[in-house]
Amino acid sequence: MQQNLPDRNHCTGCSACLNACAHAAISMQKDQEGFLLPVIDETRCIDCNLCTKRCPVINAPSFEESPKKVYAAYNLNPMQHQKSASGGIFSAFANYYYSLDNGIVCASAFDSNLHLSFILSSDKEDLKKLRGSKYVQSEVGLVFKEIRKQLNQNKEVFFLGTPCQVAGLRGFLGRDYVNLFTVDLVC
Fold first, then answer.
1. What is d(CA 94, CA 87) in angstroms, rounded to the nearest whole number?
2. Calpha distance 64→35 (Å, rounded)
3. Among 7, 42, 97, 139, which is 20 to 30 Å from 103 by CA?
């Protein structure tokens, strides 16, 4: 019953497979270099192939999109600019979503034990811990499921991640949402 998920040389560690598995048969475990990779518990796997169907490496998501556009921007607020590695743009987007009655921001943050993982936030106070470069792999966990739940409740969700994490989210969701705004970080 071993699923044909990408090997270590191709897997991005995006956790789309973890989020897609309805039987909790997949866990993300660190390899010898500390990179998170999916491991399948054969006793729980029912061979439904949802993990491979949602994997953006195996099945690149195809969504209706307008032509690709690239923008450069700079936040004119000097306080936000100084506290951000993105020219302050993350802060500007996050503040916009925090200003909405139904806005949610999802990005990575360190906890008190310096464990880096994604969090969903509707509290502007969280912006302090969401800003800044992290330079290590952030644990996605089951946040994609939480994002889908928020999207289905018509919340406006802003997700910031690396290109493979954004692809993982989109692959997991399997369709476009007009209330989802994603930004890919250069990694």
1. 13
2. 32
3. 139
Residues 74, 87: contact at Cβ < 8 Å?
yes
With contact defined as beta carbons under 8 Å apart, do 179 and 151 qualify?
yes
pLDDT at 187 over 80: no
Yes or no: say if 63 and 180 are a contact pair by the CB < 8 Å rule: no
**More confident of the two residues 12 and 185:** 12
Query: pLDDT tens digit string along 68-102?
Result: 666 777 777 777 666 666 667 888 899 999 999 99
DSSP 5: -
Alpha helices by DSSP H, the chain: 16-20, 50-54, 78-82, 89-99, 127-130, 143-152, 163-173
Where does residue 108 rank: exposed (0-12), middle (13-18), buried (19+ CB within 10 A)?
buried
Amino acid type, 28: M
